[in-house]
User: Fold this.
Amino acid sequence: MSGSEIFLQQLIIGLSNGMIIALIALGYTMVYGIIELINFAHGDLFMLGCFAALTLVGLLGFDHMTAGAPGVWVGLLLMLIVVPIFCGGLNWLVDRFAYRHLRESTKLAPLVSAIGVSFVFMNIGLLWGGVPMKVFGLGRAAAAPKAFPDLVSNTNLLGQSAVEFTWKDLMVFVVTLPLMALLTWFVQRTRAGKAMRAVAQDRLAAQLMGIPVDRVIGQTFLIGGGLAGVASVVFASYNNTIYFQMGYRAGIDAFTAAVLGGIGSLPGAVLGGLVIGLARAFCDQYIETRWTNVLVFAVLILMLVFRPSGLLGARGKEKV
Amino acid sequence: MAARRKILFHWSFLLVAALIPLVELALPGNHRVGDLLRPIFIMAMLGLGLNILTGFTGLLNLGVAAFMAVGAYSYAILTCDIYPFRLGFWAATVVTVLVGLTVGFCLGLPTIRLRGDYLAIVTLGFGEIVEDVLKNLDAITKGTQGINPLPAPSVFGYQFRPETYQPWYYLFLGFLAILVLLNRNLQHSRIGRAWISIREDELASSCMGINPMKMKLLAFALGAAQCSLAGALWASYLGSSGEPGNYDFQVSVIALCMVIVGGMGNIGGVLLGALVITGFNSIVLETLTNFLKAHQLISSSNVFTSPGSWKYMLYGLALILMMRFRPEGLLPSKQVKAELHPQEPHAPPPSV
Assistant:
């Protein structure tokens, strides 16, 4: 591969992973925008989504099918419906039973609670990996990474070119782009979206206008969790390895993306996700893989210290 | 009179702790209580360091394990034969505390202006960076192997040996007692009162002439120094710096659990938290696992029946339930309790 081809290849990998990070970041940014909570458990919710997807694969028997067979596409579609419902529902339940009671408490109480939820989720992931199913290695070595079968084929869509743009990359964009458009439409144009924006702006005033604040916050958790669910299906079929500790790293990447773009801003989260995805890909290629995480954290800290409102952060006031 | 009785009550704890190894020596058979208490003392020191930040000053720090790592590695570098320093125990410990102080100060300087949750994330990022840097700079830190072996310390002319735990026990107990005394006096000093007032209301305290930035920076430096002292003692106990993965995010969260479960801002609460949380991990879970294994009730290959694989679930539930039902902790400080339950004693009737 020539230098420019390597660059193009990393660009594609970075953009695809960036879109997945962006989906998770949207969940962070929506929840933060509405109740100013860093939902620490969001990355682990994404991890549980991956396990749910793998369980579905096992139940439906897709691990025997060849990549790209018509049945597999139906299965993927099914996963894209079931897993987001699972993740969204779980996120809603956590808000209902943990965070909702802490709305009037000190600011740190929900954050600490979210760290607790994250630990519980991680532990559930560990135990889930021990379920005696064939896709989980029959329950042996619960903590070991699980292989997610190749549902989407690795065939290069660019023909004989050295740069690969595979069906997998295409799937990432086909799923994520319309979803983001849908989300923008929902938040900007619908009644429920308007209520969300109102609650984010001023909770008390929204309540006085007759908006059922708790229900709106619950909807936000539902949608944010659903996005994480979509991200987990896409991630698992794109990267093909899942393990119970992946949520922490994914969560940090996504949170960094949300902060980078300006937390609370939806286009910002997408932009931040793409920047982080590209930064990771280029750091892997041109610096060293082992320094990639340091790079992401350095970006996070420098952003928070010098420009906490982010790249697209409109609401600069009272952010620090 | 009441205060005096309270002080006697506190000293009696130290006395009981000091007697444990002697009683174990006197009793026939093989006992491990004192042996198992040693890591708890270290974790209690870590908890006390975090308590200065989170408990007194109200700054949530999710990266105290990094301060501990800084302490452990700096102690290891200062004492190990493969480096030119080769300092003795006391010199290395003093330098390590100074290093911790500096690191805390340098991290605090750019970040203390940040609001609570952002600060928490920055400290988390700092913790991850330290872990990765220690792992990647293998020319200095020996990567994932850690720096070892470290010479056993020689204190007041007495040469420590890894086989006998009693000298270590008294060394750690002594350090812990000094730290408790130090923290208690700090808490009731001008500085401690300033910290607590910042936690309660930063704006009001700055109106009262307190400089919040200066005080927060001081909290960062002193908290980090205590955590790195814990790290140095830990390294001397292990005879190794430990590997970078020993100081990961989970250690920071366990320290946070200790402070929160025990009672934020209350030294006795933090000690209780350290005993409950660390003791649960190293004593209860271990004993239970060994018991179940000895009676062949579980096989090691099954993840569900092994108590150790439920550990993080329990830590997580502890955090969630404490936040929901008893946010002030098991042994709360008076101010925190009053803040969290403001209207309970004289609640006005709710207006409809």
